Automatic annotation (TrEMBL):
Annotated binding of Fe cation, by residue: H114
Keyword Transmembrane helix: no
Pfam families per the UniProt record, alphabetical: FUR (PF01475)
GO terms (BP aspect): negative regulation of DNA-templated transcription; regulation of secondary metabolite biosynthetic process
Positions bound to Zn(2+): C82, C85, C122, C125
Protein family (similarity comment): Belongs to the Fur family.
GO molecular function, one term: zinc ion binding
Cofactor annotation: Zn(2+); Mn(2+); Fe(2+)
Top-level taxon of origin: Bacteria
Cofactor note: Binds 1 zinc ion per subunit.
Disulfide bond among keywords: no
Species whose genome carries this gene: Candidatus Blautia stercoripullorum
Name used for this protein in its record: Transcriptional repressor
Length: 135
């Protein structure tokens, strides 16, 4: 890939995602930088997010339901997605290689990486659920 020309908008998008730890959507990023760049388009945000993912500076999380989310943490880690509010939380496992080793036992090829997503109900939603039961 040819050297990229510096872009203040791209840098602002990258910094915004890196400042968020709640895995923002493209719409959230757009709203977050709109004040600094009032003329920026949502398409520009999408294009720059895709480019930053391609460059390995941020990661894209496809949730299956709803819009893709973006993550400043590009190191291998797992995610938890709440089936109620759709928040995404990082999960740090102490032995990420264990899953790869176990999967390799039943696979004829070479596994070089994996992603793991856990689904359930987050602490906040559980609290709301328990509050409703006791009311």
């Amino acid at each position: 890939m040819a050297a990229l020309k510096y872009s203040r908008q791209r840098e602002s998008i990258r910094e915004f995602v890196k400042s968020c730890h709640d895995h923002p959507t493209a719409d959230t990023v757009y709203a977050g930088i709109k004040e600094e760049f009032p003329n920026i388009s949502l398409g520009t945000v999408y294009r720059n997010l895709s480019l930053l993912v391609e460059l390995g500076e941020i990661a894209k999380i496809s949730t299956g339901e709803g819009p893709d989310r973006f993550d400043c943490n590009t190191r291998p880690h797992s995610h938890f997605i709440c089936t109620q509010c759709h928040c995404i939380k990082d999960i740090q496992l102490t032995d990420m290689d264990y899953i790869t080793r176990k999967a390799s036992e039943n696979f004829d090829g070479e596994i070089t990486a994996h992603t793991t997503t856990f689904y359930g109900i987050c602490k906040n939603c559980l609290g709301k659920k328990n509050l409703q039961k006791s009311s």
